[in-house]
Amino acid sequence: MRTITPLDLRKSLGAILDAASAGERFLIERDHRPVAVLVSVEAGRTLEGDQDERRRRSLAALGRLEAIGRAQQARHPGGPSAVDAVRSERARDDA
Q1: Which of 16, 48, 60, 73 has its CA 20 to 30 A from that of 95?
Q2: Under CATH, which architecture does the 2-46 domain have?
Q3: Where are the domains of the chain?
Q4: Exposed, middle or buried, 17 (CB in 10 Å: 0-12/13-18/19+)?
Q5: What is the CA 21 to chain-centroid distance, rounded?
Q6: CB-based contacts of 85: which residues, under 8 Å, 6+ apart?
Q7: What pTM does this model have?
């Protein structure tokens, strides 16, 4: 998987789309943080799966997040809630 920036994507959109349609995958990063993956339509369809499978995966992910939140609260009683912690983290990143 080749890593590119949004600027690389803008500069070479045609060539990158040709490569993606041929099967190459691209990780798009902004400020050294992954923000998106560009894949061919065929690869995207295999990632999608059917609606019931997507729903099952989403619910499983929410369950894992809930468990992480409970574990965090148990380790730091009286600490901020998960929502407050995320808001604080985002405010720190935006500053």
Answers
A1: 73
A2: 3-Layer(aba) Sandwich (3.40)
A3: 2-46, 49-94
A4: middle
A5: 21
A6: 72, 79
A7: 0.51
